[in-house]
Amino acid sequence: MTGPSSSSPDWDKLGRYLAGESSPDEAAKVQRWLEEHPADAQLLAALDVASRQSASQQVLNVEAALLRVRTRVKAQARTALWRVAGFVAAAAVLFVVGVIMSRRTATETPPSIARSYSTLIGQRDSVTLDDGTRITLGPASRIDVLGREVTLTGEAFFDVRHDEAHPFTVRAGAVVIRDIGTEFSVHHDPSERVRIVVHEGAVEVTAENSATLHPGDVAVVTLVGVIEASRGAATEDDLAWTQGRLVFRDAAVAELEADLRRWYGVELRVTDSTLLRRHFTGSFVAGEPATQVLEAIALALGARVDRRGDTAYVRLSTPTR
After folding, report:
1. CATH fold label, 115-238
2. What pLDDT, in 10s, does the model give residues 200-227?
3. Which of 6, 139, 267, 295 is deepest in the core (most CB within 10 A)?
4. Global pTM value
């Protein structure tokens, strides 16, 4: 089209118009031309729909696009719609669709596919993401992955394939952990503090405040979002769970509950305030009978256990006066 009165289509201008890249003056000319050629405007609209459908599928199905155009041509009963021979018209259609697709894909990033991975009670597993990052999941844990962002419930160890241009991020409740090229573990249960242990590299932790952790550092994020970092406090026991050992070091009774639920499927119930103030140190091996684990904990705490199905009530051996 050379002007508003021209009846010959300018394919490049049409492509720019549908891609949204026409100048205001050029767009006005195209719109006037389409108003003067309503049947052509309908066909152009069909082309636009075809190209958008192809873009959403991330595949340009040329044959399907041509079929839609040909069907529309028959519906309009126009054997020489744009006054060109059939072969030339088909080539022009492909050209316009190609222009739209190339321009749109240059500015639109196809959406990532969300994936979820989870483990059962007492089960550990690992998964390698598309970017090469390897994640080891603890028992009864779950991750939701979208691109290089992971949402975690439970416990996981991350061996991250670093990409400075695309940071790897882990969300544990309201806590955000961003990779700076590293291996680290995160422990998160909704009723507990979030615990981060860095094995290699560094991570940036953000909650109510922020902190950068380096190899050997441990951070605990309180339930109100305050980060408490301990430099060089990590030990081999912090990653023992990846080898099938559950280790507690001076752990409050309340801290045992989530781990016993995930590892052994046992709901621990402790209501006595005296017991809640006591701490437990010990370790267990994956697959160890839950009854044996509970008896060991009760003995160390000076308590007794009453088991009712999957619920274990821990009470003082001798009632306090």
Report:
1. Jelly Rolls (2.60.120)
2. 999 999 999 999 999 999 999 998 899 9
3. 139
4. 0.63
